[in-house]
Amino acid sequence: MEKRKDWYKDLVVYQIYPRSFMDSDGDGIGDLRGIISKLDYIASLGVNAIWLTPIYPSPCYDNGYDISDYRSIDPMYGTFDDFIAFRDGCHERGIAVIMDLVVNHTSSHHEWFRESRKSRNGKYSDYYIWHDPVDGKEPNNWAGSFGGSAWEYVPERDQYYLHLFSKEQPDLNWECEDVRNEVISIIRYWGDMGVDGFRVDAISYLEKAPGFPDSPEPPFSTGFSIAMDINSNREGTHRYIRELNEKAFASYHMMTVGEVNCRMLSDYHDYASQSRHEFDMCIPFVPPIVEINTWSPFKMKKTIMETYSELKEDGWWACFLSNHDKPRQVSLYGDDRIYRSRSAKLLAALIQMLPGTPFVYQGEEIGMANVYYGSIDEYNDPSTVDFYGELIATGHSPAEALREAQRVSRDNARSPMQWNADKNAGFSDGTPWLGVNPDYKEWNAEKEEEDADSVLSFYKAVIALRRGSNAIRRGGLEFIAEDDERLFIFERALDDEAYAFVANFSDKPALLSIDLSDYGSVVLSTTEHKSIDSDMVLEPYEAFIVKRK
Ligand code: NOJ
Hints:
The protein is α/β, with parallel strands linked by helices. Helices cover 29% and strands 16% of the residues. The chain has 3 domains: 7-106 and 177-373 and 412-463, Alpha-Beta Barrel (TIM Barrel), CATH 3.20.20.80; 374-411, no CATH class; 475-548, Golgi alpha-mannosidase II (Immunoglobulin-like). The chain has helices spanning 32-37, 39-45, 80-92, 111-116, 177-192, 235-249, 265-272, 288-294, 297-311, 329-332, 340-353, 382-393, 398-408, 445-449, 455-467, 470-474; strands spanning 13-16, 49-52, 96-101, 130-131, 142-143, 151-154, 159-162, 197-200, 225-226, 255-260, 281-284, 318-319, 357-361, 476-480, 487-494, 497-504, 510-511, 519-525, 537-538, 543-548. The strands form 5 sheets. Strands 11-10-8-3-2-1-13-12 form an 8-stranded parallel β-sheet, with helices on one face. Strands 14-15-16-20-18 form a 5-stranded antiparallel β-sheet. A 3-stranded antiparallel β-sheet has the order 4-7-6, with no helix packed on it. The longest helix is centred in the middle third of the chain and has 16 residues, at 177-192. Bound molecules: 1-deoxynojirimycin (NOJ). 1-deoxynojirimycin (NOJ) binds at residues 62, 65, 102, 165, 201-202, 259, 324-325. 1-deoxynojirimycin (NOJ) is lined by residues 62, 65, 102, 165, 201-202, 259, 324-325.
């Protein structure tokens, strides 16, 4: 792929969760041949990059975010030749290939860990974070983010190892130079294979808090406390990222997007400012449970404004509302019942009209909604199962606990892609690894391809608008009526080209009462309205894009 300076700023990225995208061999799990069979569909959306969540060999305790071999493809997804065919199929269509790099931790099945746990004196002994027992117990009160202590005892070494996620995901010791050199060589290996970039997982936790102090966060019912903030964004972590950039990413002009845990905007700045030579952009990781309970359109607007003003000088950002770790965006931010189509379109236009690099998560382009399984046994995600257990342990009834799990579960985003109205939504001839959403007969790609008014057709139109407009891709951002709770209005302008995005981000009608006489006709709309006037009443979730005269 040809890579001009700042090429990542002109991308529209389509995120694929391979397990759930398309199964070509009937084993119920999506695979690379399945993805290859859908490359024309993906290209028809107008996107020019694909990010694949991990496809490397893995025991799959966390669906691939526990890697046991960084240089191959899990046979469940296909062969290395399949990967090469996928890469070539993408490049022939002008689509960049972005892989996932998971190097805060490996799988406990990785050879490095299997060796490391054997003794305190070996080639791999220092590859992980080992600590002696304190008073015969765990070294401190840290909890793994999937529940229980973040420390696991290994009798062979009479020591504990640290895992900020599950015990099957031991944290690598980034202080060890050999570990850093291994990671550099992995990145270069994939660079040589023609990979165009990386989404870098859980990357803000590389350097741990010195001395391993107790976490000040309130304890769970198990007595352990979440330990993410205390280990986030430390100077050593930034130093390690700069080393990766200098010795690997930069030589291949890779697009890099770091998944980071930031509480303050200045933290984003530190990762995503061009002058700091770390990442091109970041994916902020806000735990869904917090966001789900506290979000509002107004807060979203303020966050966008603040992020923009922090990063507009020399930074950049990933722009998205959903991914494989969150509930479906139309269920969370829109209305997945009465206004499903209209609110899905509003969210599509919002993301594509904002500055930054937009990410579209598979299925979002056809308005896929939360799945709401009827029993906890139907869920697969370890964090959902753990959350359910925590609710039961703290006195909630099974029905209440299930309702909460349904609302926040990551499996909402992981149910199989809905291709058509056939068995299993056309995803697989076998038994899907996770249940298909029963609404697939109504909401599927095939049906929407034939409907000019569908969510899918709207996505294609708004992505095409973005790709064809310098103002939308590279222009400035100016909010209008910024203190209005429901109206979401902003302008994107560059030189003499300008567009405005105008939306009623609510389920009630709203009076527009803004002078938009500088703007001409409606370019795209989520309703029947083809023109605007200043005193019009916007319908629930009505949104349109207008071009300045
Ligand atoms: C973030 C990934 O998106 C998530 O799916 C995973 O569980 C954690 N990082 C741990 O790797």
